[in-house]
Amino acid sequence: MEAGIGIIGGSGIEKIDGLNHLKRIKVGTPFGKPSADYTVGLLGGKRVAFLPRHGDGHTIMPSEINYRANIYGFKKLGVSRVISVSAVGSMKDELKPGQIVLVRQFYDNTKNRISSFFGSGLVAHVSMAEPVCGKLVDIIRASGKKIGINLPLAGTYLCIEGPQFSTRGESNVYRKWGVDVIGMTNMPEAKLAREAELCYATMAMITDYDCWHEDDESVTVGMVIKRLGEMAGTVKKVIKEVVSSMPESAECPCRDMMSNTLISEVSRASGKKKKELELIIGKYL
Description:
Strand content: 15-25%
Number of strands: 9
Structural class: alpha/beta
Largest sheet: 5 strands, mixed, barrel
């Protein structure tokens, strides 16, 4: 059962009015198990796949997420575009809790995550200069505008390892770096989506001001859950409109990002490794 659009986010985000013919699909990958089974259904006649990033019941920490398996699973299901829905903290006064923003850049400050499908005899270097799909971002923004929801563009998403929230010292340093929002999950997710030649965009749900803001209380789990609940309905409305507005073809540079990125002599790579990456870069082997 192929699905052209993938949504990765919290549990329950697939409960959208008009989504039907739901089916849970277990997807095997050479990189282990994805976070959960994928929920695939029809929304406005288009097939959509949903995956709870932290597993059913939110049982997986950010550093424990099998990012490679998650992205590979979407690719195996025929997904060509992935929309990431993520909770973030704001690092700027003008980006307020309760807003949903579209990220344009990432700063990967994680330490313990596998960030590539490559290695073990096969090396590739893909460009991450523009880490999100501009066309997909434009579609999401236009979809929001169509239903009266403003989705501002944010600059840089800083991804930290977690699972702890920042110290106030860290938060103030990050602000000096000029980042816009902070989270724990979109890296290496965006890097792997690029290697898999999938269009990728992030809808960042601002739940707090991290811990730097003098007039706002420091972030807590309770605060995050409360504000995510308040924004969930808006996110679902936007996703429904995005799916409805999405053109069938996905002609953009994301489709060929791995062209001319292989630096290894392919003949030296093991048959096992080439088979492992057949779905990802088979057309270049």
